[in-house]
Amino acid sequence: MDTKTAEAQSATSKSPGNRRVKRMQKPFTVKTANPESTLSLQIELDTVRREHAKLQQAIYEAAQAQRKLCAPRELTWGEFEIAGEIFPVRHLSGDFFKVMELGSVLGLALGDIAGKGLSAGIWQAHLMDLIQRCARAYEHPCDAIAGVNRELCQDLGEPPITALFFARLEPEHNELVYCNAGLPAPLILRRDKSVERLEEGGPMLGALQEATYGSGSVRLHPGDMLLAYSDGLTECRNPRDEEFEMGRLVAAAKSGNGTDANQVLFSTLASVLDFADACAPGDDLTLLVVRRREGPAAGRGPNGDAFLEGLPLSGFTRVTEASRNRKKRFTN
Predict the structure, then answer these.
(1) DSSP 3-state of 287
(2) Which of 107, 108, 136, 327 has the maximum number of C-beta atoms within 10 A of its C-beta?
(3) Alpha-carbon dihedral of residues 174, 176, 177, 182, nearest 10 degrees?
């Protein structure tokens, strides 16, 4: 063999491709997992799954307790129809509403706790208890809200910032006396299609212990409606990143005017869901509708005394099928 041939063979044997072929020809073994280690991992995974299922069940039960605290969700009281619904973006809601008998008047509360999910949900029961106690201790809504704020600020730790609308509905003069602490101004939709905003009140709760509040009052005539709502409703967005806004809310409620409070509630919420289309709401949605009937007084006892006739709402039974399907997607 001449010198050039030997050098060529040597270069070939040292080339990267040739070395790669030789490495590929070396025998290799596949390492199998330790059966005991695999079993241990499977047991641990099953334990995590069981704990997750228990947590989901506990959150579901807490959500059901929240719904019971907000009952009654539909009722007739004298000449008035009341209907309310909460649409949480998670299982637990930071929004709440409460309808309560306060002697001869009816108390109405709608609140929005800052935040969502567990943290807001844990505070909800405490706040609703404060509201009911102060509503019975003070005659005027502004004093009741000031009392809630003082007690909330005195609690240990940092209280949640909370927007709250509280009103007393007096049947003798069909008058609504209210105080609005930072919630979007509730609306009075008159039978003649005019709209009034209920803005009297003060700052949100939980920030300033000595905050002061004022009260306003309006008279409800036959066919008039009160709409109280959380900001999640008007701030709900569609795929074009547009907000539902108050104008659409008023238009949706007016389209149902002349029907009962329950129908107005469902048709308005259906309009919000139709507007959102495939976009999940970014915040809890809550709506409370109070309507004075146009016909003779109903829901009164044999002596003319007002009484509550409450029926639980089972869900969006009157919304469109598309809206119902979107609700299922958003809440899963």
Answers:
(1) strand
(2) 108
(3) 180
Beta strands in 133-197 (DSSP E): 162-170, 175-181, 187-189, 195-197
Distance CA 13, CA 19 (A): 7
> Could you read off the pLDDT of 228-244 as tens digits, one per residue?
999 999 999 999 999 99
Tell me which amino acid residue 252 is. Answer: A
DSSP one-letter code for 34 = P
pTM for the full predicted model: 0.74
Residue 98 sits at φ, ψ, to 5 deg, of -150, 135
Residue 187, pLDDT above cutoff 80: yes
What are the structural domains of the chain?
A: 74-331 (3.60.40.10)
Q: Among residues 142, 143, 149, 158, which one has the least CA distance to residue 127?
A: 149
Which of 213, 220, 226 is closest to 187 using CA atoms?
A: 226
Residue whose C-alpha is closest to residue 127's, from 106, 111, 142, 114: 111
